[in-house]
Amino acid sequence: MIIQENVPLSTITTMRLGGPADYVVDVESVDEALEAIEFAEEKNLPIYFLGTGANSLGLDEGFRGVIIRNHIKGFEILSETGNEIIVKAGGGEIWDDFVEYITDRGYSGIEAMSKIPGTVGAAPVQNIGAYGQDVSNTLESVEAFDTMLDEYVEIPAKDCDFSYRHSIFNSGETSGRYFILNCTFRFKKGKLTPPFYNSLQAYLDEHSITDYSPKNIRQAVSEIRAGKLPDPAAIASAGSFFKNFILTDAEADEAEKKGIPVYRSATENKVNTGWLLENAGLKGKSFHGFKVSDKAALILINESGESYADLKQAEEEIAKIVYDKYGFKIEPEPVIIKEREQHD
Question: Which of 189, 288, 334, 338 is most buried, taking the most CB atoms under 10 A from its CB?
C-alpha cells in the first residue's frame, strides 16, 4: 500500500484539473483495500474511490479526504463450457485488457466496448457502454467492500439498478458507498448482429467485413476510436463528456420529425449527443480553454483551461447552444471528485 500526501487532482485525472487531495492511497490487494479504508476512518476523513481518473473531474479546492485507487489485478476463469465462460476480474484491471482477454477466446458481449479507458471496477459504476453493448448485459455480480456496513458484500447484477450510465454505485444514497474489488462476468460464444451504429457500419462496409466475430468487431471499434478519440495520456480530456439521450417511442418519433436521427433497437431509442453538438455548429469551437473536438464532438479537450470553474462555464455555454437549437438539455458524463453526501 502506497500513501501519498497533498497530491494534485490534476495529476491523477485525465482532464488534468483540480487542487490537492489530502491523501492518495494505491492498493493492490483486498487486504490493502481494507487497510486503506481503515486509514481513512482513523483520520476521520471522507473516502473517494478512483480508477484511472479517466471519467472523473477534480474541483479547484481539491479533496479534503482520502482517495483510494484500485490496482487489484487478475483474471480467474470460474467455469468454462463449449459455449460459455464465467470469469472473475480484479477491479484494478485495465478495462481494455479485459476486453482483449475475452475476445481472444472467442466470446462475445464486450467487444464493442474496446478501448474505453478506465478499469474493470469502474465499469459497473456508470454502466459503461458503446455501440449497443453495456456492462449490465454480461455482469453477473460485484464483490465490494461496503463502507456503510463495514463488511464485504456480493451484489448480484439484478440488484445494481442498471440503466443508461446509472447504477447504485453512482446514484442516490448508495453513491460512493462501495469499493469494487472484483467483478464476475458471463460470456457466450457468438457474434453481434446488425443493425449497427452508423460509424461502425460504415467501417465494416468500407473494409468489406461481413464476419461480425468478436475479434473483428473489436478491431473495427479500436480503429474507429483511434481515429476519433484523443489518447488521454497525451491529450487532456475525460472521454465522452456529454451523455447521449434515451427516448421513449413517442419522444423518438418527435425527434425524427425535427430531423434528428434516432438509433432504434429492440431495447432503446438513442439520440447521439455528438450529432447535436456537431449540427449546432460546435465542432472545433473553443470555450474558456476547452475545445469541442473536431474529430468527435462528444469529446471536450482541455487545451488551456486552468480550473474547474473554466470547465463549468464552457459546459454551460455549450449546453445552452444545444438547448436553444434542439430543446435537449445535455448533461456531462464525468463525475466530480467530492465527499459523498450523507443521508439519514
Answer: 334
Q: Is 240 a catalytic residue?
A: yes
* Number of domains the chain is built from: 3
Low-confidence ranges of the chain (pLDDT < 70): 341-344
Residues 79 and 133 in one domain: yes
Active-site residue (options: 10, 199, 237, 240): 240
In a domain, 213, yes or no: no
Cell 474489488 sits on residue? 181
What domain range is 90 assigned to? Answer: 75-189
Strand partners of residue 84:
188
306 flagged as catalytic: no
Annotated catalytic, 177? no
If asked whether residues 93 and 66 sit together in one domain, one would say no
C-alpha to C-alpha distance for 168 and 99, rounded to whole angstroms:
23
Please indicate, yes or no, if residue 211 is contained in any of the structural domains.
Answer: no
CA 325, 327, 333, 336 torsion-angle sign:
positive
pLDDT, tens digit, 9 for 90 and up, residues 98-110: 999 999 999 999 9
